[in-house]
Amino acid sequence: MNNLSVKHLIGIKDLTKEDIELIFQTADSFKQVINRPIKKVPSLRDITIANLFFENSTRTRLSFELAEKRLSADVVNFSAASSSVKKGETLIDTVNNILAMKVDLVVMRHPNPGAAKFLSERIDATVVNAGDGTHEHPTQALLDAYSIREQLGTDFKGKKVVIVGDIKHSRVALSNIFCLQKLGAEVMVCGPTTLIPKHIHELGVKVEHNLKKALEWCDVANMLRIQLERQDIQFFPSLREYSMQFGLTKELLDSLGKEIIVMHPGPINRGVEISSDVADSKQSIILQQVENGVAVRMAVIYLLAAQINR
Amino acid sequence: MDKRTILNSRHFEITLRRLASQLKENHGNFENTVLIGLQPRGIHVLARLRSILEEDLGTEIKCGQLDITFYRDDFRRREQPIIPSVTNIDFMIENLNVVLIDDVLFSGRTIRAGLDALLAFGRPNRVELLTLIDRRFERHLPIQPDYSGRTVDTLSSQRVSVEWVEIEGEDKVVLYTESK
Q: Can you tell me the distance from the alpha carbon of A140 to that of A144, in angstroms, rounded to the nearest whole number?
């Protein structure tokens, strides 16, 4: 099987285990490519890609753009802040106008859950979801799992991963849960009761409210950012109180009696969910995640573009 | 399917030794020369030539493996994308003489892609091409080998398969013809 089972990447939920493994295998090759003196291959020289960002992003947008350029695709960028969206244009109109300029593939981030699926059903181009509201962020989950695979080996069976923090508002958490479970890992979520969705155990994840217990259980801790921009009411008394209960500090890490891997999807609120010395420690693979992000996104775009009809 | 053996294991060995001698004639002690095998099948030719040459010369020869998947010109033109193999070149080829090595030369498109892929590792002084089998009359591009084990005249509907003792159990080259 050399083809993905999907035409668009909307969410990890739609992928099979074989899809994920194919993406990882392809990403291995691209990782070699981006570590060469000339970091570019000509595969996608006849493909045009539009990056539509209706929500702020640094890492993801840069990472996608680099991935596309290293595949030699032509790239156009669009961000909502400086566009006609402000004048009242609808999503479909905006996208159709961009597609009229002959774009083959659309990478989109949007504040509304389901925006990527909505778009994929209505336009004649391949859609890659770069985050839709609180729903999914599939490429982040893929690069997180790819980074874990690099540290712990290709077999995820029995590997224990805890996702700590704002699970309720996190598309990274949901995509990570789907991805890790498909690969065979065990997943736990940890955070204050108010930030854990009520029925999340139905996804087959463990729930824990004590950070120390969660860390003692796991091999990998993925620390999520507190998404203040999505919190319309107050979910915990203060950032200080949150960080005292759920912030990962060096003392806590050293008290575990084993070495765990620390991850963070970025951007980091230093001193809130993770202290500076942990973020910069050798157990942290935060910057490897960013490097792997480019390789994984190259793999996703390469494999999806392979299915675009000429 | 009609089967005809073009090279049996004895001729296979003789051919490889001849190719090695020709390389030695042109490159001496391989001080400024690297051998690069093309994935997936050219690396077996490389491995054999390397062991013959290293045994003869008593020194190590710089070798690498090059995968050309991302440089192909038929991306999105074939049904299934090809799974890439490993590129393993841990040196720069700047100013070196490069011998590209593959098993069968057919349309020349793989070699074209190989030349492209090579650029990522620097500007070579000179690039030569060695193939075990040259299917002449089937070329799509103006590419010819500098060293060729055996030249064969084939139809494009025929298939040439190079088999190795390590993989298929016997060294031989077989020509397959679709029977009518």
A: 6
A33 interaction partners in chain B (CB closer than 8 Å) = 70, 87, 120
Question: What CA–CA distance (Å, rounded) separates B109 from B62?
Answer: 25
Which pair of structure tokens corresponds to residue A208?
Answer: 């824990």
As to burial, measured by CB atoms within 10 angstroms (0-12 exposed, 13-18 middle, 19+ buried), residue A19 is: buried
Give the residue on A whose Cα is nearest the Cα of B77: A310
SS3 A107: strand
Cross-chain Cβ contact B120/A32 below 8 Å: no
What is the distance in angstroms between the Cα of B155 and the nearest Cα belonging to chain A? 29
Fold match flag (A12-137+290-305 vs A140-286): yes
Contact A154, A161 (CB under 8 A): no
With beta carbons under 8 A apart, name residues in chain B contacting A43: 70-72, 75
Which tokens hold the place of A112?
């509304």
Phi, psi at residue A262, to the nearest 5°? -110, 130
Per the CB < 8 Å rule, is B120 touching A40? yes
Q: For residue B146, which amino acid is it?
A: D
Q: Which residues of chain A have pLDDT under 70?
A: 1, 82-86, 310
In B15-54, the residues whose Cβ lies within 8 Å of chain A are none
Q: Using alpha carbons, select from B70, B76, B84 the residue that is nearest to residue A306.
A: B76
Is residue A87 flagged as an active site residue?
yes
Task: Please give the model's pTM, rounded to 2 decimal places.
Answer: 0.88
* Nearest chain B Cα distance for residue A101, angstroms: 21
A240 is annotated as an active-site residue: no
User: A140-286, what's its fold?
Assistant: Rossmann fold (3.40.50)
Domain A12-137+290-305's class? alpha beta
**Each residue of A90-120: pLDDT tens digit?**
888 888 888 888 899 999 999 999 999 999 9
pLDDT in tens, A278-303: 999 999 999 999 999 999 999 999 99
CA torsion, ordered A127, A184, A166, A120, to nearest 10 deg = 10
The alpha-carbon radius of gyration of chain A (Å, integer) is: 19
CA dihedral sign of residues A148, A301, B66, B7: positive
How do A206-208 and A186-190 pair as beta strands? parallel
Burial class for B117, CB neighbours closer than 10 Å (0-12, 13-18, 19+)? buried
Sort out which chain B residues have CB atoms less than 8 A from A37's CB and list them: 92, 120-122
- What does CATH list as the number for B2-71+84-177? 3.40.50.2020
Is A137 designated active site? yes
Query: In chain A, what residues touch B67 (CB-CB under 8 Å)?
Result: 29
Distance, in angstroms, between A307 CA and closest chain B CA? 7
Closest chain B C-alpha to A202 CA, distance in angstroms: 37
A109 is an active site residue: yes
